[in-house]
Write a structure and sequence with these properties.
The protein is mainly α and 137 residues long. Helix content is 61%, strand content 4%. The protein folds into 2 domains: 80 residues, Tetratricopeptide repeat domain (Serine Threonine Protein Phosphatase 5, Tetratricopeptide repeat); 32 residues, no CATH class. It has a two-stranded antiparallel ribbon. Strand 1 and strand 2 form a beta hairpin. The longest helix is centred in the middle third of the chain and has 19 residues.
Length: 137
C-alpha cells in the first residue's frame, strides 16, 4: 500500500527502495514482485520491470494483476519497437567520403593498381566515350 501511495505522489525512487527492502525479507511475495514491476515500469527500466512481472506471474497473483502484468509486458515490447537513435558528425575535411586524391592507388591484396589519367575523371570519361564511339562505328 505504501509503495502505491509513493508512486501516486511521484516519488518512484523512494517506492523502489521501500519495495526492494521488503522483497529482501519476502522474496516469494508475488504481489510485491508485481509492485516492483510497476515501479520499474514507471521509471522506464524496461528490462528490470519485465523480469519483475515475469517473477510475479510465476507466483500467486490475482486475475486482475495477472492481466495487468501481461498488458505491461506487451507495452514493454511495444516500447522497444519504437526506439531510435540519431547521430551526426562534423568533418573539417572537404573530401567527405574520405576517398584518396592520389593518381595511383595500389591494393596490396589485389593484382592490379587503380590509376586516374592526367586530366582527372573528365579525361577518363572522354577516353571511354571515344573508345565506345570507335567500336560502334
Amino acid at each position: 500500500m505504501r509503495v502505491e501511495l509513493l508512486l501516486r505522489l511521484g516519488r518512484a525512487s523512494e517506492a523502489l527502495s521501500v519495495i526492494e527492502f521488503y522483497l529482501s525479507a519476502h522474496p516469494d511475495d508475488a504481489l510485491a514482485r508485481f509492485q516492483l514491476g510497476e515501479v520499474r515500469f514507471s521509471l522506464r527500466q524496461d528490462q528490470a520491470a519485465a523480469f519483475a512481472y515475469r517473477l510475479a506471474l510465476a507466483g500467486n497473483l490475482d486475475d486482475l494483476r495477472r492481466n495487468m502484468a501481461l498488458k505491461r509486458l506487451d507495452m514493454i515490447v511495444a516500447r522497444k519497437r519504437w526506439r531510435f537513435s540519431v547521430g551526426g558528425a562534423i568533418s573539417p575535411d572537404s573530401n567527405l567520403n574520405s576517398a584518396t586524391n592520389r593518381r595511383r592507388s595500389i591494393c596490396s591484396d589485389c593484382r592490379f593498381a587503380l590509376m586516374t589519367p592526367r586530366g582527372g575523371i573528365a579525361a577518363l570519361a572522354s577516353r571511354l566515350t571515344a573508345a565506345l564511339s570507335a567500336t560502334s562505328a
